[in-house]
């Protein structure tokens, strides 16, 4: 199903319709389904727009795409243009693998602070013991400054280097599990535990699905919850779906649980979302699930979402008409004219039009077959 989803959605990145373009980009990126090809589609879409140093509707939606050698070479070419997208291209470099940065160190020198460039490039020359010493230093730094995202992301870079050396390959999955289990007994997860949750997703450790989903109950630990959500999406197997179900109706974890179900492109995720859409009476949760179903490209959800919009949804969360519109277009389903339906209803009430009378919207259908629903 994931491959079919990519094939259906990816071409719409090049759409001149902003709603369709954004829907396609975000859906592929959030589900970790975007590839090098997706990235080059995104650049084609970007080239249709005027460069802007402050606003970029494309690059932020590519942050989960691995930076390949082809991508890096193209980004370097664009950095050399020194246009108003310069800042956005430099952000892509920050996601680049340490080995690639070392390989293109000379080409990158004009664009990255020398100390930063040397520090990243040197990681591959450190032995494994030295890398673990670097990890210990990172953890100490985060203990003093827990909100420092630069240090946190540099720690991820080191763990990725350790992963490349086989430190967390399948025979060593027990090392990841042991740390997570130890951390679960603490009142709050330390960054050591959060990094191992990250590793569970990077290495797709499906045996840890029960432990990861249990962490969704820790509602006051936002950084942990984000990593748990991302890891479950990266693992992405159907086994994740039933494991997160009990958290869909939890007041504090529903946002993360629905996000996981939205991004696992499998029929069981769609069916679970449909079930909870029908069961919940909470307007906010219903809105989140409706959006998730549209991003699943669920045709079964279309009449349900239309009805929710007509009844009234939580507009403070999102504009539900946009994902509904995209879902209809990508499924070749006529998008309902919601404003016309509402006006027709009001006119029917005013004129006391019956269910079997012609619909006042002018469709030629009976009112009960058109805007009455």
Can you walk through the features of this model?
The structure is a single chain. Helix 9 packs antiparallel against helix 10, helix 10 crosses helix 12 (191-202) and helix 16 runs parallel beside helix 18. This protein has 21 helices and no strands. Among the domains are: 265-336; 347-373, no CATH class. The protein is globular, with a radius of gyration of 24 Å. The model has no long low-confidence stretch (mean pLDDT 92). It has 373 residues and is mainly alpha-helical.
Q: How would you state the average pLDDT, rounded? A: 92
Order of helices and strands: HHHHHHHHHHHHHHHHHHHHH
Q: What best-fitting shape do the alpha-carbon axes yield?
A: globular
Q: How would a textbook summarize the main sheet?
A: none
- Measured between the Cα atoms of the first and last residue, the distance is 32 Å
Short descriptors:
mainly alpha; 373 residues; 21 helices
């Amino acid at each position: 199903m994931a491959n079919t989803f990519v094939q259906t959605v990816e071409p719409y990145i090049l759409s001149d319709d902003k709603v369709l373009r954004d829907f396609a980009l975000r859906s592929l990126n959030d589900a970790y389904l975007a590839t090098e090809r997706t990235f080059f589609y995104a650049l084609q879409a970007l080239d249709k727009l005027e460069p802007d140093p402050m606003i970029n509707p494309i690059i932020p939606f590519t942050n989960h795409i691995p930076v390949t050698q082809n991508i890096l070479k193209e980004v370097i070419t664009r950095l050399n243009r020194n246009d108003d997208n310069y800042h956005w291209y430099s952000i892509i470099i920050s996601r680049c693998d340490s080995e690639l940065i070392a390989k293109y160190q000379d080409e990158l020198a004009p664009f990255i602070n020398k100390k930063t460039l040397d520090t990243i490039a040197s990681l591959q020359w450190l032995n494994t013991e030295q890398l673990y010493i670097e990890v210990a230093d990172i953890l100490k730094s985060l203990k003093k400054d827990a909100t420092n995202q630069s240090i946190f992301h540099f720690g991820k870079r080191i763990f990725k280097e350790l992963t490349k050396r086989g430190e967390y390959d399948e025979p060593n999955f027990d090392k990841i599990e042991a740390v997570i289990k130890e951390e679960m007994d603490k009142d709050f997860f330390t960054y050591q535990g959060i990094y191992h949750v990250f590793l569970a997703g990077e290495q797709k450790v499906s045996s840890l699905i029960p432990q990861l989903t249990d962490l969704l109950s820790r509602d006051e630990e936002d950084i942990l919850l984000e990593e748990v959500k991302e890891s479950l999406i990266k693992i992405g197997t159907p086994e994740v779906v039933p494991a997160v179900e009990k958290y869909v109706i939890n007041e504090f974890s529903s946002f993360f649980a629905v996000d996981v179900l939205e991004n696992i492109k499998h029929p069981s995720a769609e069916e679970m979302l449909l079930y909870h859409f029908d069961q919940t009476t909470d307007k906010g949760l219903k809105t989140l699930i409706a959006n998730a179903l549209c991003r699943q490209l669920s045709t079964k959800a279309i009449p349900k979402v239309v009805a929710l919009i007509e009844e009234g949804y939580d507009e403070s969360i999102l504009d539900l008409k946009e994902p509904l519109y995209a879902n209809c277009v990508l499924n070749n389903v006529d998008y309902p004219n919601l404003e016309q339906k509402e006006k027709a209803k009001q006119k029917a009430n005013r004129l006391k039009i019956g269910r079997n009378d012609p619909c006042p919207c002018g469709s030629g259908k009976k009112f009960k077959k058109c805007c009455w629903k």
